[in-house]
Amino acid sequence: MMNTVTDPTAAQAFPKSDYKEYPKTLAADDLWGQVRRTIHGKPVSEEQIAMIVAAIRARLALARDDVLLDLACGNGALGSYLAGDCAAMFGVDYSDYLVGVAQQRFALPGRSEFMVQDAASYVESEPDPGRYTKVLCYGSFSFFPADDARRVLATLARRFTNVRRVLLGNLPDRDRAAGFYPPGKDYAAELDDPAAQIGIWRSAAQMRELAAATGWRLEIARMGDDFYAAKYRYDAILHRLA
Ligand SMILES: C[S@@+](CC[C@H](N)C(=O)[O-])C[C@H]1O[C@@H](n2cnc3c(N)ncnc32)[C@H](O)[C@@H]1O
Prior knowledge:
single chain, Rossmann fold, globular
């Protein structure tokens, strides 16, 4: 799909959690680079993307009549694989640039639409939350400040009353952080910093507590060993508490 390679100099000049300015330094067609879905600066393979898409479909039990909210959707590239699986999808992200890319490439009026807004303020202000049946937040939840993360989940439970499942995909597992950082690096201060390279690392136990406190039951799922981030990430499937 894309042959462009992320420029390592530009990549290092921006904090890894920056999705507003850094993507502007990349080629317009470097869609995976723009959302930092890269391995050693190169976009991940289509096989890896296919694994992610299959996992999302299964974990959300995505059905033709679902209306999907893609929270922190980035440039819409990942969501574009799911658009045909549901009745409609709506993407929200706080990066003007990435939403611009999504609008240019993937918008289809009434079926795939995108808007710029911060996740927490969006869920609190969406005028018609009842239209959604599923929520996806892939590779993004760890970048929400802790208070916002809690607000998002609590507001989804309270206002988005027809949503049965939320998938928080590709969360960094605090219990496995040691395997991610190079030996000898003192990474303790990074684990709770939403602006650090991976965002906030949460263990499955911490995630379970957060889910229960905000109105959700947690199910944990892990990718197979052939997934590039399987060693230190997991997926959280949230089911509405009865
Ligand atoms: C790694 S990218 C993932 C994008 C997309 N979900 C995907 O998987 O391709 C992380 C995204 O989170 C977005 N983001 C981070 N914090 C946000 C916030 N508070 N509100 C909305 N979007 C946010 C960034 O702009 C970026 O697009």
